[in-house]
């Protein structure tokens, strides 16, 4: 039996509960009932904060996407040679992914069954495209190797970065966000082999 | 209405149908009914070939695991400096992943709810460990950079390789297995930045 708790949520704190439930059960598999149970408040209390689960999804993936897009406006992403701007973006992507882990995890699992999911996929593609453009510019400058095709390289680098959500656990006191970011930047830009 | 087709399956051809259904619906979400429908033969015909869906899972993930473990016995993985053996293994992992795409996809999605799944996870961990040991040996030789921790590097490299199942589509006539393998080996060992 669950004891209803007094509703002390704000839309933001409710969001952090919802994201965890979405990640555990999948967005499609989550009902308002599940959210109400996890939050310990009634469904009508949830409706007091948000219009429904799709609004929670939109807020959650927006938080991830806003974090990622903000990187592109940072000075390190705007000034200097393309290859250095690209390295800044790669490093910061890892840091944002780790800082906003549950939100980025949810974003990466979005499949496109609802309008909000399709909108999120569209924004993800837009972000990927902006990063691919940086890589293309760095190749045009002759600063990155020419023997790996830009689209393929972009996919592989995103694959490495996004895979972090599969194993990174903040509570396990392993590497910090900046440490993982350093490791990714070293691997991607300089490679494993000792020169 | 489905018309039952004459059962011309062997355990191997039945397996390729089953793997596709497992990948589409998830192993947990697949019933013998789904398999019977997809194969176009009766459930009792399926039981003529295999003892049930868990045997199909075991055969499928065995095919992926056997392909991966066979790499470790190849000459390129056994002779020479550790860093070169590691590069051989990384390249061949990508080729095996692409050659056995549906089987490796299924292997990477195994979650551990049944004895067969737990056995598959155990063998995956064993394989990952063997690759990490190679990386450790290459680091001890001074052939790979010392400023990326071995466990972290192994996870990131596996993350890049395993992410290929998310986007690689053999029918789209993009890069071939060996081309993707080259790209991964270049990125992982030499990095993007032009020396």
From TrEMBL, chains A, B:
Residues 8-68 form the HTH tetR-type domain. Keywords: DNA-binding, Transcription, Transcription regulation. Residues 31-50 bind DNA. It comes from the Bacteria. PROSITE patterns: HTH_TETR_2. SUPFAM superfamilies: Homeodomain-like, Tetracyclin repressor-like, C-terminal domain. Transmembrane segments: none annotated. Signal peptide: none annotated. InterPro entries: Homeodomain-like_sf, HTH-type_TetR-like_transc_reg, HTH_TetR, KstR2_TetR_C, Tet_transcr_reg_TetR-rel_C_sf. This is TetR/AcrR family transcriptional regulator.
